Amino acid sequence: MCDSATILIGGFCASSAVLRLMGVKKKAVWGLLLVLLLGQIISFSVAASSFASSLIANLGVNAPLTQLLFAYLLLTIVYVPIILHRREKLQIAWYWYLALAFIDVQGNYLVVKAYQYSYITSVTFLDCFTVVWVIILTWYVLATRYSLWQFVGAGACVAGLALALLSDAKSPDEQDPGKIPLLGDALVIAGTVCYAFNNVGQEYCVKNKDRVEIVAMLGLFGSLVSVVQIFLFERKSIEAITWSSTMISLFAGFAGANFTFCSVTPFVLKMSGATLFNLSLLTSDMWAVAIQILFYHQQINWLYYIAFIVVTIGLIIYSLNESSSYDKQASIEAAAQYQQLQDEDNLTENGSNSGRQERTHNDEIGIC
């Protein structure tokens, strides 16, 4: 009778042989696992930044621009030296980066500000509203066309977000008298409009230009915009901050989480596209639920769970059909390129035949 070690070795050898025969599938599996891991890193970074912002707000600090400045400075310190080391001209004019950074700062400011009035679950959940604005913008700006199922998925997302707003409207006031959930929700939704404009602009840049340059310029110009706005609107708030070790750790944690998000996101978009990226971000909402229950000991309205299920279904429907539309578009483009190459080959061949016929005709004339 074979012992367990023999069975394990035999099974390992058999599996290795199968994997050698299916080398391509093995690479695909490892690639998928890597994308899933990176997607969860992004999801956790979103939840971590939300947790840091909510703790800062609960400690009575109202300085969202200062929080953002730490994050943009970290991006600048890491990525701008890489751009300077290349000694190359920017691939996109600096004023476009300034515009993208300005919009990004305003969107982040509104969302971080929302933690003063709303709960971490609502803020992270309502970020999904960005999908709605992106559909509208890409339809009119980039002439992107969507299928019926994509509209069904987007409609389900809107319905789920409406349920989330209703759950905040019904939330008991005795949980935290200082909170105004609907005001916080309005700030988040306004922030998602800025996110949508920024995402559409970055989508073009990421697909056509250098990703490192985009992140570096976003950090540089984001820092400049944040400094100007802090000088105009937030000087008194900074003076009121008590800089303890806990406060510094929270600001550093927020900056580190945002740095991770901005650094890893381009790789996930390149390796998997928006489908798995959107699905990975869904788990950040569950992190937010766990944080609110475990750390804040706050009960969550039952409508939130229904809203989460509805939005999850909607995003899955939208994302799956998004990948299908990408595949169809890629096939159409490939067919068009093939047809163009075929036409060029035909023209070349016809030109060569006509050239040969002309030379033959001239030879015949010369012989005569």
Automatic annotation (TrEMBL):
Topological type in the membrane: Multi-pass membrane protein
Biased composition (Basic and acidic residues): 356-368
Record localization: Membrane
Protein name from the UniProt record: Solute carrier family 35 member F1
Key words, A-Z: Membrane, Transmembrane, Transmembrane helix, Transport
Keyword Membrane on entry: yes
Chain spans, region Disordered: 344-368
GO MF terms, alphabetically ordered: transmembrane transporter activity
